[in-house]
Amino acid sequence: MTTAKQPWTAEQIPSQEGRRVLITGANSGIGFETALELARKGAEVVLPARSQQKAEDAAARIRARVPSPRVIPAILDLASQQSVVDFAAWFAHRFPGPSLDLLISNAGVMAVPKRELTVDGFERQFATNFLGPFALTALLYRHVKQQHDSRIVIVSSSITKWARIEFDNLQSERHYSPMGQAYAQSKLADSIFALELHRRVTRAGSPVAVMSAHPGYAVTNLQTSGPGDGFSLFKLSTIVLRPLLSQDAAHGALPTLFAAVSPEAVPGGYYGPDGLLEAKGYPRAVKIPKRAMQDGERLWETAERLTNTSFTV
Ligand SMILES: NC(=O)c1ccc[n+]([C@@H]2O[C@H](COP(=O)([O-])OP(=O)(O)OC[C@H]3O[C@@H](n4cnc5c(N)ncnc54)[C@H](OP(=O)(O)O)[C@@H]3O)[C@@H](O)[C@H]2O)c1
Fold this sequence. Notes:
Elements: E1 20-23, H1 29-40, E2 44-49, H2 52-65, E3 70-75, H3 81-94, E4 102-105, H4 124-140, E5 151-155, H5 178-203, E6 209-213, H6 222-225, H7 233-245, H8 249-252, H9 254-261, E7 270-273, E8 283-285, H10 296-307
Parallel strand pairs: 1-2, 1-4, 2-3, 4-5, 5-6, 6-7
Antiparallel strand pairs: 7-8
Helix pairs in contact: 3-4, 4-5, 4-10, 5-10
Bound molecules: NADP nicotinamide-adenine-dinucleotide phosphate.
């Protein structure tokens, strides 16, 4: 007799004792829930946020729910290349050599209403969601242990199905639309990066596994932090869709957690919710959008040039 497969939940996370994890954007939303569950299972969690205060607050919220967790607050602003370099230097000093079991690239910002430039002159969503994480991964790669079950997980979005990379408009200099173009492009860049990194790691014969995940539609600060307080059609649409198609941040974190720890997650795999439109539900392998399978080398070289980083696997 066959039995229906049980949904995968955080209870199935294997022990993370002895493992060091770094999660970006873990002071809020999906990243926080991911950090909480991994800390609960015994991982040491390095938790960088945009300010020491935000990182300390998140660490305190984990300490309030997990007895004796190992949480290390730090500072990182992914929209500043200098901050990425400084954080990587801090990490190298604090945890020299191969010292990282799991790197989860989760931080992001969405639907900034008007085109904004970072201190480096990049469009803010492209910088925060892709260029910063690319440079961070490049700088931290040598710290990822070259052993079985070391993983890099990149959090993308189901919006990538409708996204495309405009190589002549990466900084939205020709035209800007907050969600369908700028945010979507930055998250497609994440998916392309994940697959290209997977290819390179595999080619190099490294045992490090690279996966990506998307949370569906999880109600978090994402829907307000980028768009701000004002009215927008995008905000109205998220509110209308919310009752039917959304889930809380804890459920939104499950695909990331599955990619990060499940023995069933495979290198190069992409995980998202199993429900209607992949908006909510329990983790399963989901289809990789066609556009995520192209332009890997070109995007990699572009990111190296823009961030002045050499990323050798
Ligand atoms: N929620 C969804 O429905 C949904 C859907 C698809 C994909 N995603 C993806 O899921 C990931 C997590 O989002 P979330 O929903 O959990 O949103 P969230 O609650 O707003 O969390 C985003 C995190 O990213 C951090 N962040 C933003 N800009 C940053 C910067 N310049 N440097 C460093 N950290 C920065 C935020 O820090 P602050 O607190 O300082 O702002 C926060 O910790 C994002 O990559 C997002 O694109 C979410």
